[in-house]
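Service request form, structural biology core

Requester: graduate student, group of Dr. S.
Request type: structure prediction, single chain
Budget code: on file
Notes: please return the result as structure tokens.

Sequence provided:
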Amino acid sequence: MVMNSMARLSKGDWYHPVTCRIRQLRICLAVHSYIYYELCDNLVSDHRWQAWAQELIEMQAKHPEYTDAYDEYFDDWDGTTGFHLCKIPGLHGSALRLLRNTHERK
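Core staff response, request fulfilled:
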């Protein structure tokens, strides 16, 4: 399905490329913020994290109609910090798995 630029994006459009990328960026930024602020570790550079943040800010500006369960954490977010993102419920397990898998590969 190809959507025109006026189409409404929502969490129901799971397979639309824009929806997938916004969701992916939100989750990546939140998980990596949790790893950094709560687990005192780091898997991505500040430069990479900031690039993801900038991409997300631009996508959200182009698609303000996109909504999901993380809206309250990303509404009016300017990308300068991820400190509050680590407070999103349910990140602990994902962050630990990613951290463990990454360290096992090294």
